[in-house]
Amino acid sequence: MQMCNSEIMKQIKFLEQQKDELVSEERRICQVTYQTDKDKMNYIYSFTETRNAISRFDSQIRKLKHSLNYSNATTIVESFDMTLGECLIYMAQLNNEKMILESLYGREAYSRRSTLNGVVEYTELNYDKAECKERLVSVQDTISRLQIAIDRTNLTNAIEI
Known about the structure:
Elements: E1 2-4, H1 5-29, H2 47-74, E2 76-77, E3 82-83, H3 84-105, E4 110-114, E5 120-124, H4 129-156, E6 158-160
Antiparallel strand pairs: 1-6, 2-3, 4-5
Helix pairs in contact: 1-2, 3-4
């Protein structure tokens, strides 16, 4: 069966949710506390069946994640000449660069303040805010183009599962 990367990611999320629900239910019903036999609530619980079901979920998730990882390591994203995996790393790097540039751009070019002992201090930037803004816009544009390219690749790249 062929699936695109986006379908695989959604299937992994769905299976993980089902597994989490099963684990939650197991925690809730794997033991019973009571004072008398009359008060005892009997839950239908099978340790073996539950463990086997969780193992089946884990196996499916592992197979899908392996396929997705293989696709990320081998599929080239158009116009960026990088694999999906490299693009995901690049996206994280760009987002970090964007945060730094936003912080630098948000600073005052020149400021003055008085210290606790009344001494006046001046602070002046050692860089051109216009150049910083230009770089920030460029990074934001690259992030946007990269996200679209990643999304497009994830929707169009079908792999055998």
